[in-house]
Amino acid sequence: MTSDLLSTANLKIIKQLKQPDKPKSLLQASGLSQSVFIVAAENLWRKGLLCGVVHDGCCQNACGQACVSYMNMERSWSRIKTSR
Hints:
The chain has about 80 residues and is mainly alpha-helical. About 40% of the residues lie in helices and about 5% in strands. The chain contains three helices and two strands; from the N terminus they run H-H-H-E-E. The chain has helices spanning about 5-15, 25-30, 35-45, and strands at about 50, 80. The protein has a two-stranded antiparallel sheet. The chain is globular, with a radius of gyration of 12 Å. The N and C termini lie far apart (about 35 Å). The model has no long low-confidence stretch (mean pLDDT about 90).
């Protein structure tokens, strides 16, 4: 995947996450293909820009791959809050 496509896909996912949401809804709202969405979402998780939500057991500390919600399509995802 080219870096331009990945950057665009990352932005589309982040824009959709104004509030925590399920990945299936994010995929549909983003207009991305499933394969592009998966690659972009994994990239965001690895960079520590996505996390799960507290009611799913997430600590919301940008744990990346260690998060209980990492790439789990059944759990809600959220953006990491930059101002702590």
